[in-house]
Amino acid sequence: MRDRIRAAATLAAPDPTADEALARARTAMTRETRALMALIGRTLCAVSPTLAMREVTRLAYAGRVATDLYGFGAPRAVAATGLLLRHMPRVDSPQAAPITRAEYGMRLIRKATS
Questions:
Q1: What pLDDT is attached to residue 66?
Q2: Considering only CA atoms, which of 90, 95, 94 is closest in space to residue 53?
Q3: Which conformational region is residue 71 in: left (phi greater than 0), alpha (psi within -120 to 50 degrees), or beta?
Q4: In whole angstroms, what is the distance from residue 44 CA to residue 105 CA?
Q5: Using CA of residue 6, residue 13, residue 17, residue 37, what is the dihedral sign?
Q6: What DSSP letter does each residue of 6-35 carry, written as one string?
Q7: How far apart are CA 80 and CA 62, in angstroms?
Q8: Phi/psi at 86 (nearest 5 deg)?
Q9: What angle, 0 to 180 degrees and rounded to 10, lies between the N-to-C axes of helices 31-46 and 75-87?
C-alpha cells in the first residue's frame, strides 16, 4: 500500500522544466500576434503619423484590432488583446522621451518582423 502512495506522490510532483515551458508558451509571440502588431504599426504610420503617441492610443488599437478580427467580447478577442499588450512596448514610462505615432509604428513593425 505504501508503495502505491509513494508512486502517486512521485507522479504528482511538479516538473520545474514544465513550468518554464508553460511560462515561455504564455509569453511567446505567435504568428497571429506578429501579424496584428504589424497591422497596428502600419496603421500608426499611415494615420496622423506626426501626432504624439499616447498610452491610450496603444490600448485602443490593441483592443480594436482584436475586436475587428474576432468580434466584441469574444474570448479569442480578449486573449489576442492581452497578447498584443504584452508585446507592445508601453508609451508612458517616465524615462522614455515623447514619441510620434510613426516612430512607434516603426518599432512595432520591426518587433513583429524580427
A1: 93
A2: 90
A3: left
A4: 5
A5: positive
A6: HHHHHHHSPPHHHHHHHHHHHHSPPHHHHH
A7: 8
A8: -65, -35
A9: 70
What one-letter code names the amino acid at 90? R
| Block residue for cell numbers 511567446 | 28
Q: Give the amino acid at 74.
A: A
- Could you give the residue ranges of the DSSP H alpha helices within the chain? 2-12, 16-27, 31-46, 55-70, 75-87, 101-113
Closest CA to 77 of 86, 85, 68: 68
Which of 36, 87, 85 shows the shortest CA–CA distance to 65? Answer: 36
Q: What is the pLDDT of residues 63-112, one digit of tens each?
A: 999 999 999 988 999 989 999 999 999 888 766 678 999 999 999 999 99
